[in-house]
Design a protein that fits this description.
Chain lengths: 400, 308, 267
């Protein structure tokens, strides 16, 4: 069953949903990166919660016009309108009042969602069973989906992805360097608006697949995951799109393969699995690498400080320093320097003196800026240059 | 009329007010610390906590579920802090990763376990069921003096009242450290305050309020009450003491007006059934926020923003 | 150069001599990430005098101060205040942070901020008495902000905000005052008011340490300098430690030679 699902053998609707989810995952991964880099990740939370009243109003209008109320395209239009209003409210609050953006996000999401729930209960009272389709928007449900619905999702996912590809250059510029973008004549506020429009589009298309509470995850988790693997912004964008697509595809296929596996939560958990893996093992920013690096770094600092203290005949108070020196065979158990320790200490002190000279030299400003107390002077200067500096040390000492 | 009010409306109204105020109090400090959305995160993760508690005990009983929700809140806070520090990720994004994941796990567990026979579903977690918390033995105002009738008060009422007392006592006791550490954390540390523990205690108080309120009134009210009344109060004054007072007033008004509108509003416009009280309370708090944002005397930033 | 380890006795005697210093730092290293901001720094502040911490941007001046106060954790090293660990001596220290480090839109009044300096006296629930209010008012008076006591802090100018911070530190009634860039971005009147308050403190026998960025005023304002550029460059009385040579060592090529000569010779 799972095998069938992974290779799109579960029938036309399931295949369309899987394709749509994959496109959506890619689109949200890319869009989310721009939000993440602008440090506005949770704006998407407000946008998605703000869709609920719109869905309900659209439903009520459809019913009022004598329809059945289950027209997905119409409901999505309604959700887009109310998400837009929510976004406008949020921007208005941050711009015209003293509230910070996080408070504005929270206010919009809770109030819009609360109002949506009021409307949901209104719809419930209209007649039994009619609202069943709407509850699917909260958590997403692709089970028992109509062919036309699946088509809307696949088409919507593709459309959003195309829009993003068209707008990627100006958006990348603004996300990475708004000032430079403005200097080049781009309107930052307009591109921010475009970014929000894309967030809205992703949210609306994703409503039926992952639901409005969890669509946020698709916009936040892939970019955060991608960030672990690369320092280059353009690579983050692409990687995030790929991660989003993979998670969405696996999630959609998995959920189609068995009952009681709701699509939205599975996709989110897939994303999180990729995130957790990256958090742990990513080569540079990963936790394991960071812990190892920090401990190595701390040892280097303590050793170096210990050597300098030995050289200047100062007492060492830090137990860790003493332990490290002893383990390296540089001091004896009673804290007295060994022969090797004395030699290393003398070298450390001499290097410090060399750095002092170097940092006084205007011509060597670039090299001097590399000083951080740990760097070996041999990595900055040639032997000749070091010899030249050594020539200056003696007179400088005698002058004191 | 009076007896009907006591039976049907008194307890839900009181529970609503207590829940709203218990959330709004810590909300004031969360708002000023730019942690307003922690309430959002906490109320999302209560769901998996409750589901896990249900799966472990196999029964719908209050205490294990509250413990489960509180445990989930702590797990979420620790995860957010851990991801933020270890992964060097901005707090908003770390929060987004954690609460969506835990919520998704909760939904999945719920679908996987056979809970259809019992009253445990996502909708209940979201909207709560304030309207059902009636006091059948409260037949009139004299019932308030009748120990036998009082014994049959909905258990949510004393629980919510106790929560409010604990939260209010925490805020009152630690008022000075909270104020100093929120305004100037570095200075607070030079005074010897353990600001990180204070911040954690504040979040735990928020979690306590959220979990207690969550069971009675659902998570929408929780999120709305953490943010909207304090945010509206912020537009009314430039003094923290006064701001907290306003937030209590706004929270209470939201609870009362929201409950009344949800119960009687639909009848006024000719509809037969009441609408969600939780949703209506959140909506009213939003209206209050909108009014204060438009006309509040202190709605704009005072003077130049920091750093100028 | 000869390497010899001094006798244990000699060390402890030297140590005892230093330990009465208001602020004594040994082997302090602080690092944000992988690059130490402060590396293996020793500092001994002279009691009853004013010391300026100077150095180029990013040289670790503020970091040194924050680590000394326990606001940021050090990677190694130790700090003693009046001869005892920091935690026992909190009541004797007052700190004036950088003005930009807080959100001035916080809902509170000038007098409330100054009252924060009395927290150690008041504790969690201690009643605010008339005497406490009097202290706060007196401190505001000393910085010339008396008439602003009921004002919301966001409505103040930058210089006024800085003075409020100084008043809060005065309310702490400490023996050692640590200030982080107290003159950054303030008007001339405020600078004058602040320096006169600091000189009064010195006259009362208090010790003042300030991160300072204006080389031109060092000689007028301070008794001692502490030059830092990740490592300690020089420490001592202004006449000895604030020279063309030490400035060149601290600022490297970042300071024009002519400028250095001018500053170093203007006595």
């Amino acid at each position: 069953m799972l095998f069938d699902a992974l290779f799109l053998q579960l029938g036309y609707n399931a295949t369309l949903v899987a394709v749509g989810a994959t496109l959506l995952g890619a689109a949200s991964g890319i869009t989310g990166t721009f939000l993440f880099l602008r440090k506005r990740a949770l704006v998407s939370d407000a946008v998605s919660h703000a869709t609920l009243p719109g869905i309900c109003v659209a439903f009520l209008i459809l019913v009022g016009l004598g329809g059945e109320g289950r027209n997905l395209a119409a409901l999505l239009v309604g959700s887009a309108v109310s998400a837009g209003i929510g976004l406008w409210c949020m921007n208005w609050l941050t711009r015209n009042t003293r509230l910070a953006e996080d408070a504005a996000i929270g206010a919009v999401l809770s109030v819009f969602f609360g109002f949506g729930v009021v409307l949901l209960t209104v719809i419930q009272t209209l007649g039994s069973g009619r609202q069943a389709g709407l509850e699917g928007f909260l958590l997403g449900s692709t089970a028992g989906m109509l062919y036309s619905d699946a088509l809307v999702i696949a088409g919507g996912g593709a459309a959003v992805l195309v829009m993003i590809l068209l707008a990627r250059r100006p958006m990348t510029l603004v996300a990475f360097d708004p000032e430079y973008a403005a200097a080049r004549g781009l309107s930052v506020s307009r591109i921010d608006m475009l970014m929000m429009a894309l967030v809205m589009a992703v949210t609306v298309v994703g409503l039926k697949v992952v639901g409005l509470i969890l669509i946020v995850a698709l916009l936040i988790i892939p970019p955060v995951t991608a960030r672990f693997w690369t320092e280059r912004a353009d690579q983050v964008v692409i990687l995030s799109g790929i991660l989003g697509a993979v998670a969405a595809y696996l999630g959609a296929a998995l959920s189609a393969s068995a009952p009681n596996l709701p699509t939205g939560p599975i996709i989110v958990l897939m994303s999180f699995a990729l995130f957790a893996l990256s958090l742990l093992v990513a080569p540079n920013r990963g936790v394991l690498a960071a812990v190892l690096r920090h401990r190595r770094f701390q040892r280097r600092v303590h050793l170096r400080q210990g050597l300098l203290a030995l050289a200047q005949a100062q007492t060492i108070y830090e137990p860790l320093t003493l332990r490290l020196l002893a383990r390296a065979g540089l001091v004896r158990a009673d804290g007295v320097a060994t022969r090797a320790g004395r030699a290393r200490a003398a070298k450390a002190l001499r290097d410090e003196r060399r750095w002092e000279i170097l940092r006084r030299d205007q011509a060597q400003e670039a090299a001097a800026a590399l000083y951080d107390g740990l760097r070996e002077i041999e990595t900055v200067l040639t032997p000749d240059q070091i010899a030249e500096i050594d020539g200056k040390i003696v007179p400088a000492r005698e002058a004191h | 009329m009076a007896s009907e009010f006591v039976t049907l409306s008194l307890t839900p109204l009181l529970i609503g007010i207590f829940a709203a105020v218990a959330c709004a109090l810590p909300g004031n400090f969360l708002l000023l610390r730019k942690q307003a959305l922690i309430g959002d995160a906490i109320s999302h993760v209560a769901l998996p906590g409750i589901v896990v508690a249900f799966l472990l005990t196999g029964a719908i009983s209050t205490w294990p579920m509250m413990l489960g929700a509180a445990g989930a809140a702590i797990v979420a806070v620790v995860m957010i802090e851990g991801i933020r520090r270890l992964g060097r990720i901005e707090p908003g994004a770390a929060m987004g990763v954690v609460f969506t994941t835990l919520f998704a796990a909760g939904v999945l567990l719920l679908e996987q376990s056979d809970t259809s026979s019992v009253h445990l579903d996502v909708e209940h977690a979201l909207y709560g069921n304030l309207e059902s918390l009636i006091w059948l033995d409260g037949t009139g105002w004299d019932s308030l003096l009748d120990p036998q009738a009082l014994a049959y008060l909905p258990v949510e009422l004393p629980r919510m009242a106790a929560t409010l007392v604990v939260v209010a006592a925490f805020i009152a006791l630690f008022w000075r450290p909270l104020k100093i550490a929120t305004f100037d954390e570095g200075f607070a540390r030079t005074l010897g305050m353990r600001t990180e523990w204070l911040g954690l205690a504040l979040v735990l108080m928020a979690a306590l309020a959220a979990v207690a309120a969550f069971d009675a009134v659902g998570s929408i009210i929780v999120i709305a009450m953490f943010i909207c009344p304090p945010a509206a109060a912020r537009m009314m004054t430039n003094r923290l003491e006064v701001q907290v007072g306003w937030s209590v007033v706004f929270a209470s008004v939201s609870a009362i007006v929201g409950y009344v509108l949800a119960g009687y509003g639909p009848m006024w416009v000719g509809m037969a059934d009441a609408v969600s009280a939780a949703g209506m309370i959140a909506t009213v708090s939003g209206v209050i926020l909108a009014i204060s944002a438009l006309w509040g005397p202190c709605r704009r930033r005072a003077g130049a923003p920091s750093g100028v | 150069m000869q390497l010899s380890l001094a006798s244990q006795n000699g060390q402890s005697a030297a140590e005892a001599g230093l330990s009465s210093s208001p602020l004594c730092i040994r082997g302090l290293t602080v690092s944000y990430g992988e690059k130490p901001a402060v590396f293996s720094v020793d500092m001994t502040v002279v009691a009853g005098q004013m010391t300026a911490i100077i150095g180029p941007n990013g040289a670790g001046k503020s970091t040194l101060l924050k680590a000394a106060l326990g606001i940021v954790p050090p990677l190694s090293g130790r700090v003693q205040v009046f001869g005892r660990p920091l935690d026992h001596q909190r009541a004797r220290i007052a700190y004036v942070p950088q003005r930009a480090s807080v959100d001035w839109d916080f809902p509170t009044r000038v007098i409330d901020v100054v009252m924060m300096g009395l927290y150690r006296d008041l504790g969690l629930l201690g009643r605010i008495r008339g005497s406490h209010r009097q202290i706060a008012r007196d401190c505001l008076d000393r910085v010339g902000m008396h008439e602003f006591s009921e004002r919301q802090i966001g409505q103040l100018s930058g210089g006024q905000q800085q003075r409020v911070f100084l008043a809060r530190a005065l309310a702490q009634g400490a023996d050692l005052y640590l200030l982080d860039e107290p003159f950054a971005g303030v008007d001339a009147a405020t600078e004058k008011a602040i320096i006169s308050v600091l000189k009064d403190l010195r006259a009362e026998g208090k010790t003042v340490v300030a991160v300072h960025h204006d080389l031109a005023t060092v000689r007028d304002y301070f008794d001692n300098v502490f030059l830092i550029n990740t490592r300690k460059v020089a420490e001592g009385p202004v006449d000895e430690a604030f020279t063309a040579e030490t400035l060149q060592a601290a600022y490297g090529g970042r300071l024009a030679t002519a400028q250095v000569d001018q500053i170093a010779t203007t006595a």
